[in-house]
Write a structure and sequence with these properties.
It comes from Schlesneria paludicola. This protein has 1 helix and 14 strands. By secondary structure, the chain is mainly beta. It has one domain. The N terminus and C terminus are likely disordered.
Length: about 230
């Protein structure tokens, strides 16, 4: 009788040349799960890139601002917020290994001004710290070319009168990145003219800077064996 398999799943692919290729895959074992967190200035992490772009200041670089606003009508012109966490995927300690299974990923920001519902879309094109409304050709459109049409997450505008932590579920985005897609971060796009504001990675209080928290199970080592078929 074949022994029961508990922590490992064996995928067997039979091919025409008469060989079987056996790929051991790491099963969902709670004991194997890991959690990592990324926040600018914590444990030496310096990979957060975030900036606001504004239609009324189309060539102005706002990357050094300590807070950012996503607003469809910011004093008469739309403003959007771009954010990305670099160096989160890899084989170094504290990174998420490629091909891991992502159980949960949350982008958490500290909002201090309630506004209209804001949608978070995965960016499909790169940006850098010097990005402006003009350099991104009249801001970012969620058109399937610049940013994904489907929102990754969203939040209603209502928050407490003081600072509130607001989580965005970005599990699908991070899973796509560990599977090989390029990490270009996200864009916050407001659905109305009441701005939604939060603190940036430059804010003096480290505990109120954006953070990315990921729970994952690493893929097993790529052991591949071949055996002659009967």
């Amino acid at each position: 009788m074949q022994a029961a398999v508990t922590r490992w799943a064996m995928a067997v692919l039979r091919i025409g040349c008469g060989f079987a290729v056996c790929l051991p895959l790491f099963a969902d074992d709670p004991a194997a799960r890991r959690t990592v967190s990324f926040r600018q200035g914590v444990n030496g992490y310096q990979g957060t890139v975030d900036t606001e772009i504004w239609a009324l200041a189309p060539t102005t670089i706002l990357e050094s601002n300590i807070n950012m606003s996503s607003d469809a009508n910011n004093d008469g012109g739309e403003s959007q917020v771009l954010i990305r966490f670099d160096d989160i995927i890899g084989s170094k300690p504290g990174q998420v290994p490629p091909r891991s299974t992502i159980h949960s990923a949350k982008l958490v920001v500290n909002a201090f001004d309630q506004g209209d519902t804001v949608n978070l879309h995965r960016m499909l094109v790169p940006f850098d710290r010097s990005a402006t409304w003009a350099s991104l050709i009249s801001g970012v459109s969620a058109d399937g070319l610049e940013a994904a049409r489907q929102r990754s997450s969203f939040t209603f505008g209502k928050i407490a009168a003081s600072t509130s932590e607001v989580p965005f579920d970005v599990t699908d985005s991070v899973q796509a990145w560990v599977n090989g897609a390029e990490n270009h971060g996200w864009v916050f796009i407001n659905t109305g003219g009441n701005g939604w504001d939060f603190y940036a990675s430059e804010f003096e209080n480290i505990n109120q800077r954006p953070r990315l928290v990921i729970e994952f199970t690493p893929r097993s080592s790529a052991a591949v064996t071949a055996a002659a078929a009967n």
